[in-house]
């Protein structure tokens, strides 16, 4: 996948996190590949995960299968971004 597409997915993910979780511009800008998500962001609880994944699916035009959702994927920003880049390339 070209770097520019990965960058677009990164920006989309940041925007979705901001919109769905109500994170500030500053918090979203500080996210790096090792930044914790599920369990680290109080805003991202089990109820918010469904909304987050639905919005990601809509924005990236992908389908996240239930059996693909696990703690590792949601543990860090980098883990989720890596999953989305691979998933987008498949579709």
TrEMBL record:
Segments forming domain Carrier: 7-88
Domain of life: Bacteria
InterPro entries documented for this protein: ACP-like_sf, PP-bd_ACP
Protein name, per record: Carrier domain-containing protein
């Amino acid at each position: 996948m070209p770097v520019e597409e990965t960058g677009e997915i990164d920006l989309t993910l940041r925007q979705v996190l901001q919109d769905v979780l109500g994170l500030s511009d500053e918090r979203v800008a500080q996210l790096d590949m090792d930044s914790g998500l599920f369990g680290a962001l109080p805003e991202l609880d089990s109820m918010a995960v469904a909304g987050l994944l639905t919005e990601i699916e809509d924005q990236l035009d992908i389908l996240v299968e239930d059996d693909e959702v696990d703690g590792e994927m949601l543990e860090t920003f980098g883990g989720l971004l890596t999953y989305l880049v691979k998933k987008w390339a498949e579709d």
